[in-house]
Design a protein that fits this description.
This protein has 114 residues and is an all-alpha fold. It is built from four helices and no strands.
């Protein structure tokens, strides 16, 4: 599975860099599909409760880390935007909206699963 996912990422990056975006996306889709299908076509137990625990800890830590970072970064950017040294642009606006969507999704799913 990991090999398929790594292949997908490398194919997307290399194909894009070589200016073959459709080939890149096609190979990416093949690699990702291959990696996702493997658990369904094998009798081997690929994940157990230990993997679930590790996944839950990693996701929780990732959300907490980015959550705390965003509590520092975004107010700083808002304050900086009042000076001539910083101006909201497409990248920072997209980043702030994406961060808000991620945490809104998390809050909704947290409520749903509770």
């Amino acid at each position: 599975m990991t090999s398929c996912f790594v292949f997908a990422g490398i194919a997307l990056g290399v194909g894009t860099a070589l200016e073959f975006p459709l080939v890149a996306v096609g190979l990416y889709i093949l690699g990702m599909a291959g990696g996702m299908v493997i658990p369904y076509i094998t009798d081997y137990t690929m994940f157990d409760e230990r993997d679930t625990t590790i996944h839950q800890r990693a996701s929780g830590t990732t959300l907490a880390l980015f959550g705390w970072l965003s509590t520092l970064v975004f107010p700083s950017l808002v304050a900086l935007s009042t000076t001539p040294h910083f101006e909201w642009g497409p990248a920072t606006t997209t980043l702030s909206i994406t961060t808000a969507i991620v945490y809104l999704t998390y809050a909704l799913l947290l409520g749903y699963y509770r």
